[in-house]
Design a protein that fits this description.
The protein has two domains: about 240 residues, Nucleotidyltransferase, domain 5, CATH 3.30.420; about 220 residues, 2-Layer Sandwich (Nucleotidyltransferase, domain 5). It is built from 14 helices and 21 strands. The strands form six sheets. A seven-stranded mixed beta sheet has the order 15-16-14-13-19-20-21, with helices on both faces. The protein has a six-stranded mixed beta sheet with strand order 3-2-1-5-12-11. It has a two-stranded antiparallel sheet with strand order 4-7. A hairpin with a 4-residue loop joins strand 2 and strand 3. Helix 7 packs across helix 12, helix 11 crosses helix 14 and helix 12 crosses helix 13. The termini are far apart.
Length: about 475
């Protein structure tokens, strides 16, 4: 009997520090997973600046794809078995490219915040728009180019996002973007158009990409790309999403009421809603899933970075185990590793604080784990106050989700089930997205078949009651410092 080959789908995640390629079958089994770190030359930039050379992204992606195809061939699978592939990358990153599709400047990265004046100018002319623009948003950076690098602006054929540039290298089509990556460039996901206020900013729509929805076909792998990477021209390239949205898809949190969380260097929190959620303070913004549901949420500056700062040489697994002896710590901490906060409140001068005297490093460590959970609870309360209907389960990802002890603390503080998927990586999310175009035709069906769960943590009623009292004290201490 002839063996039936699996249907394969590819996901490409290009982040800040490296690239990852995952090839999955239609049941969510990872067939190949290969990553490469970037090696950027050391450069000194002014405070608030963050740049990368996109050509280095492509060089490393080419190497990773070659290794991926070689890995598949070792398993008697081939490039032509990959039916579709999709790409995600950092949200808000923007690159000006010329008519020859060459970058005219380094990419201004997602965390580049030079465009303070430009963000203010955009918000003045877009007062009725549902989104408040920040200096890190792509549109603010485009206006920065127009104001500060007029020659580059005038020579720009298209301003493309990080994922768009890589899709262009895969397909030779640099003129298309997806609505997810284009959100921070001002694309109106409600009216499905570039907003009229761009004219007031003297930003021509012709310099911006054509927009399609995530999961829609962009093209096939070009002959040139196939020669450089080993991919097949028979593979379809579909529009991707931002890295955080890809993480949501990989977690399976695609139904209204689902909550998605990432604890990495920082804390990301999103909910799935049927309706657009608007935050006039600008803390919360909405992406949109291919299903049409919205993803209100945002990112805090608290997270795993504070553990690296306070406990740089400690074995965190040992610290995790010891934390069970100290909870609740009764310490009140705002766990920032550096100055400034953006969610649950916006305050560029906000700093970490500790109320109470830690007995030892384990006591302080436990307090930090609890503190991140308090911030997460605060964010969920904001989402609820803004009209989001929240369910009882948080689908959790990132390095913090690997800690059983931290997951239990969060379950107790949030009074919600913490569910941990087997694989929550952005590249897996884009592989799932790729499958929706050629096979499943529906994101819900794709995640039902391709997302599998490792375990979950339920709140303990006695601990929940204790944490409720401490959380109230936490909010009170924040109020004293005008952290509101």
């Amino acid at each position: 009997m002839e063996e039936v080959k699996p249907l394969l789908f590819g996901g490409i995640d290009v982040g800040t520090t490296g690239v990852k390629v995952i090839i999955s079958d239609d049941q969510g089994n990872v067939i190949s997973s290969i990553s490469h770190d970037f090696k950027f030359p050391k450069v000194t930039l002014p405070d608030g600046y963050s740049e990368q050379n996109p050509k280095i992204w492509w060089d490393e992606l080419k190497s990773t794809l070659k290794l991926t195809i070689r890995d598949l061939e070792g398993k008697f699978l081939f490039a032509s078995d990959i039916k579709a592939i999709s790409v995600d990358s950092t949200s808000g990153t923007i690159i000006p490219i010329g008519r020859n599709f060459e970058p005219l400047h380094n990419a201004l990265m997602y965390n580049d915040s030079r465009a303070v004046k430009e963000a203010k100018q955009i918000n003045e002319v877009s007062r009725d728009f549902y989104l408040k623009f920040k200096p890190s948003f792509a549109l603010s950076k485009i206006l920065w180019f127009r104001e500060n690098k007029p020659k580059i602006y005038l020579n720009t054929y298209k301003f493309v996002h990080a994922a768009d540039y890589l899709v262009g290298m895969l397909t030779d089509n640099f003129t298309i973007s997806d609505s997810s990556n284009s959100l921070k460039t001002g694309y109106d996901i409600i009216q499905k158009r570039w907003p009229p206020f761009l004219e007031d900013l003297e930003i021509e729509v012709d310099r911006l990409p054509e927009i399609v929805q995530p999961g829609q076909k962009i093209g096939e792998i070009s002959k040139k790309c196939a020669e450089e990477t080993g991919l097949s021209t028979a593979t379809t390239v579909v529009a991707g999403v931002t890295d955080s949205t890809a993480g949501v898809i990989a977690s399976g949190a695609v139904n209204p009421g689902d909550i998605f969380n990432v604890i990495g260097t920082t804390l990301v929190e999103r909910a799935v809603t049927k309706k657009l959620v608007i935050d006039k303070k600008g803390r919360i913004y909405c992406h949109q899933l291919p299903t049409g549901n919205f993803l209100p949420g945002g990112a805090s500056n608290v997270g795993g970075e504070v553990l690296k700062k306070y406990f740089p040489n400690d074995n965190l697994k040992v610290m995790d185990r010891k934390s069970t002896e100290y909870k609740p710590s009764n310490l009140i901490i705002y766990p920032l590793a550096r100055k400034g906060e953006r969610l649950p409140f916006i305050n560029p001068a906000a700093e970490s604080f500790v109320v109470g005297q830690p007995k030892d490093k384990y006591h302080l460590f436990t307090g930090c784990l609890e503190a991140v959970a308090y911030v997460e609870r605060w964010i969920l309360e904001i989402l609820k106050d803004l009209g989001a209907k929240l369910g009882t389960t948080v689908y959790s990802a990132g390095g913090g989700a690997y800690s059983n002890e931290w997951c239990q603390i969060r379950a107790d503080v949030l009074n919600r089930i913490i569910r941990r998927p087997m694989i929550v990586e952005a590249a897996m999310g884009t592989a799932i997205l790729a499958s929706t175009y050629t096979f499943y035709k529906d994101l819900g069906k794709a995640t039902k078949n391709m997302v599998h769960y490792k375990d979950h943590f339920e709140p303990i009623p006695e601990m929940k009651k204790k944490y409720d009292i401490i959380y109230d004290k936490f909010r009170s201490e924040c109020n004293k410092r005008n952290y509101t």
